[in-house]
Write a structure and sequence with these properties.
Serine Threonine Protein Phosphatase 5, Tetratricopeptide repeat; three-stranded antiparallel beta sheet; 3 strands
Amino acid sequence: MQAAPSEVRITSQLTHTANNTVVWSRTDRAQVNDASGILDVQAQVAGDVTGQLGQPHGVIQERLREDLSASRAVSMEDYLCVLDAYDYSRTKTRERHANVRDCLELVTQHSPNYSPAWAKLSWVYGDEERYGFNRRTDRPAPFVRAKAAAESAVAANSNSAMAHQYLAIAQFSLGEDEDFRQSIEMALRLNPNNAEILADAAQMLTLLDGSERARELAQKRRSR
């Protein structure tokens, strides 16, 4: 909560504690004349927020429904493939790249709503350009495919910070500056304390224009 002489601003957030993702957020402003007025505003906002989040078709119930629907469609084999993709990101080799790419392509074919698989496939496609790993010359350029895969990740789960993060990276690499800004800000909105997203955002914004926003994010990253 922030207060000025005649105005109070209250920001409410619902955070998924497992991954520190912001699921829902809202800001309320009200004119106040004294301390009792602040307490009245707090009580009103608390009631409104509780009703909005807890009702049968509210934010919490909708998020649970989305998470359950996505997980039911995923086989153990699909899940293990995505785990391998995370492991590949820590230890990259040309051979592992080819294996993970093939695996993720199969997963996205038979589980097209599995957002993490699309997101990791976007990153793996980008590594064809970043590291020269197993580049395919008979298909569109790596970052074109990376962008398409990330767009599929966002379409499968618009609440995935990782999907928006990887979409932003592909857009930045393709010189789509305004789209990049929108995507990276969405990733930051969904998961504002993720060190990897903060680092990527700060680096790309620094390369783009060296803005104050880039310095702000770099400082926040260092404080994690």
